[in-house]
Specification:
alpha/beta; Nucleotidyltransferase, domain 5; 2 domains; six-stranded mixed β-sheet; 38% helix; 19% strand; globular; disordered N terminus
C-alpha cells in the first residue's frame, strides 16, 4: 500500500499569520524599546527581556524556574492545583520584572501542557486574576517555527540540509529545511525570514524550503512517564528510545537517509542537549559561552550517554554536570537524542543554548523592523 502523505508535511502546512504581540502601544517601534518573551512549558517557566542590537539582541534581564506544570498530566489529563500554584508564583516574579523594566512589547506563550490540559482555560483565568498577565497557548507549528529561527545564527553557510530538533518537556519538534538553492552567505538570513511562517510570502530573496516538520507529543517528561513502571534503568532507556523512533514514522525524511551527506547539519536545542554538552566538556559549573554553538560528534554524544547509564539513577542524581533539576529527566531526553542520531548519523550536531524565548524575540523584532540585516 502506498505511503500516505505525512499529516505534518510542510507541503500541507497552511501559512501562519503574523503572530499577535502582547503590546500596550500602537506607536511606531523605537529601536531602544525593550521586548520580552516568556515560555511556559511542561517543566519550566522561562523569560527573557532584551533590547535590539544590530542583527541580534542584548539580554537585559532573565528568569528561569522549574515549575513542573505538567506533573500528573499524563495520568489525569488536568493541571494539578499544586502545579498551578507553583507556576502562578513564578509568573508573579515575571510580572514584577516586566513592570520594573516598563516592558510594553511582549509575547507570553504556553505550550504542550496547556495544549493538552482539559482545565487550561481555568488555569489561564487564574493567571490573569493573580498576575494580570495573559498567556497565549500557541500551536505546535508555531512552536516549531520559533525554535527554528532562534537557531539561525548557528546555521553554517555550508549547510544544505538542516534538521532543527527542539526537545521539550511535553513534546519534541523536528523541522527539516532545504537550503541548497539559497546562496551560502544568505543561508542564516533565509532561516530568519521564516518568522512569518513555514510558507513565507515571496520577499524577492532566495527562500529556505521547509521539506517537512512534525511535533511529536513526547518530551522529556511525557516520555519518562510512559515508562516509569520499568524498573531496570538500561531497559527503560532502550524502550524509550525505540518508542520515540516509532513515533517518527510519518516524518517524510525518516526513510530518506540518502539526504544525510556532506552539507547536512543537525541543530539541537533543549536542556537535554546542553546538559550532554556540559557533561562532555566536564563543566561542574554551567557556562553558556562554552556550550552554545559547540559541535559534537555522534561518538562523543554516545560516550556521554553510556556514562550516564553507567552512573545509574543515584550517580546521576549526584553528578554536578547534570544538576539536581535535570537528573530525573536526562535519560528520557538522551533516549530521544540517541534515536535521532541512530536515524541520521552525523558528526555535525550543533548544540544550541537557545529556543522558544529567543525565537519569540527574533520574531517580534523582525516584524517591527528593528533588527539590522547584518551577518549573524
Amino acid at each position: 500500500m502506498a505511503k500516505q502523505p505525512p499529516k505534518h508535511a510542510g507541503s500541507h502546512v497552511r501559512p501562519v499569520a503574523r503572530p499577535r504581540r502582547e503590546t500596550q502601544t500602537a506607536d511606531k517601534p523605537d529601536p531602544a524599546d525593550l521586548y520580552a518573551a516568556l515560555d511556559l512549558g511542561t517543566n519550566s517557566c522561562r523569560m527573557l527581556i532584551a533590547q535590539p542590537k544590530g542583527s541580534q539582541f542584548h539580554v537585559v534581564d532573565s528568569f528561569s524556574k522549574s515549575v513542573q506544570l505538567g506533573a500528573g498530566l499524563e495520568a489525569t489529563g488536568q493541571l494539578s492545583r499544586a502545579s498551578m500554584a507553583r507556576t502562578v508564583g513564578a509568573l508573579k516574579i515575571c510580572q514584577k520584572k516586566l513592570r520594573h523594566h516598563s516592558v510594553k512589547r511582549m509575547r507570553l506563550v504556553a505550550t504542550e501542557a496547556c495544549r493538552r490540559a482539559t482545565n487550561a482555560a481555568q488555569f489561564n483565568n487564574l493567571v490573569k486574576r493573580e498576575t494580570g498577565l495573559s498567556l497565549e497557548i500557541i500551536k505546535p507549528e508555531e512552536e516549531a517555527r520559533l525554535a527554528v529561527i532562534s537557531c539561525a545564527p548557528l546555521v553554517s553557510v555550508k549547510t544544505e540540509q538542516l534538521l532543527v530538533v527542539d526537545i521539550g518537556g511535553g513534546s519534541t519538534e523536528l523541522v527539516w529545511i532545504d537550503l541548497s538553492r539559497v546562496p551560502r552567505v544568505d543561508r542564516p538570513r533565509a532561516i530568519m525570514r521564516l518568522h512569518t511562517g513555514f510558507d513565507p510570502e515571496d520577499s524577492g530573496f532566495p527562500a529556505a524550503k521547509v521539506v517537512d516538520w512534525i511535533s511529536v507529543p513526547l518530551g522529556v517528561a511525557t516520555l519518562r512517564d510512559q515508562f516509569d513502571d520499568v524498573d531496570d534503568d538500561a531497559a527503560r532507556f532502550a524502550l524509550m528510545s525505540w518508542f520515540f523512533e516509532e513515533n517518527l514514522a510519518e516524518f517524510t525524511p525518516y526513510q530518506d537517509t540518502d539526504q544525510v551527506k556532506e552539507g547536512f547539519q543537525i541543530v539541537g536545542t533543549s536542556g537535554t542537549v546542553t546538559t550532554v554538552a556540559a557533561s562532555h566538556l566536564g563543566l561542574r559549573r554551567y557556562d553558556r559561552n562554552k556550550v552554545d554553538g559547540l559541535r559534537m560528534t555522534s561518538d562523543q554524544i554516545d560516550h556521554v550517554i553510556q556514562g550516564y547509564l553507567h552512573l545509574g539513577p543515584e550517580g546521576r542524581r549526584d553528578d554536578p554536570r547534570i544538576g539536581r533539576d535535570r537528573h530525573a529527566l536526562i535519560m528520557s531526553g538522551a533516549a530521544i537524542l540517541q534515536a535521532l542520531l541512530r536515524i541520521w548519523p552525523t558528526d555535525r550536531l550543533t548544540v544550541a543554548d537557545r529556543g522558544l524565548r529567543e525565537g519569540l524575540l527574533y520574531a517580534q523584532m523582525s516584524s517591527d523592523g528593528v533588527l539590522e540585516e547584518g551577518p549573524y
